[in-house]
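TICKET #2291
ISSUE: user wants both folds in one file
ATTACHMENT 1:
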Amino acid sequence: MSIITHWIIFDKGESMTKLINPSTPGKEKNRLSKAIIITIREFMRMHETNDRTNDMLAFIILALEEIASGIDRSVEAWEKRGYWVKADKYRMEWQWTEKTAERLRHAFSSDQEVEITTELIQIMAKFSKIKVSDKHRMGQPWIGAFRKYQE
């Protein structure tokens, strides 16, 4: 999750706290992408649907939606400098996340196992260049995601 650091600035004898979030949308995208890969790997090892698989699917959907929501924030700096082509290329590269999250949400809510598996395979293909060790330290990022999904 995001790390927030505190800086205390003294101005005319009064202390003020400034919160700085060093986590950028790009860093979040990378972290979430790796977490999605880990979750899909574990999901594919499961043989039956249960609470754990519901958490996994909910996490993947929420993570894709989070990536999609960070796209515009990621390109703001490029657009301020006039790098429109670079910003548009980035948007086109990641626009699939929102559409995939919608399709996966629909398949999950209507319990369409074949469509779910198809979407997960397509997601893994999109993330094929990202390497995540089997000895990662991310734990199980999907735990409790189904509760958030239902809210």
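ATTACHMENT 2:
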Amino acid sequence: MDRIVWDREKCVGCRMCEAVCSFTHEGEFNPTKSRIKVVRTVEDGMLYSVSVFCLHCEEAFCRAVCPVGAIARDDRGAMIVDEAKCIGCKLCEIACPVGAITVHPEKHIALKCDLCAGLPEPQCAKFCSGRYAALSLLPAEKVGKALARSKAEKFVQMARREA
């Protein structure tokens, strides 16, 4: 299974991922209907943007708490919401450890990333802007290696600055 990976250092907080997601799934540019969220926070006078999206957990709490079995894993490994079954109870929203599930403001069904089911790749990663490309798609087995490599490169850069 492929996974979306977010690089904090490359993210400029443009929210293009939200716009593309809501347009792909809902046919309109509306962040409240997006399956990915950009959360902004200020710490020590600095503005930080964080992309929040479903991690398609191995032990999916959202699936475990769903009283009607509306959340299941598809053949690609993504956790998918069956809109016909969902009753909008918000238990999945409460159970999600990363806050990646919301409830549609009009349909009252769970909204979560489905890796753009039916499309060759998630549109948020495809359209993540220019040279920054803060969102990318990696095979699951390479995610840990890519993150470790990135941290190692930062460590080497810090060591060079101190030398």
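RESOLUTION: both attachments delivered.
EXTRA DETAIL ON ATTACHMENT 2: The chain is about 30% helix and 20% strand.
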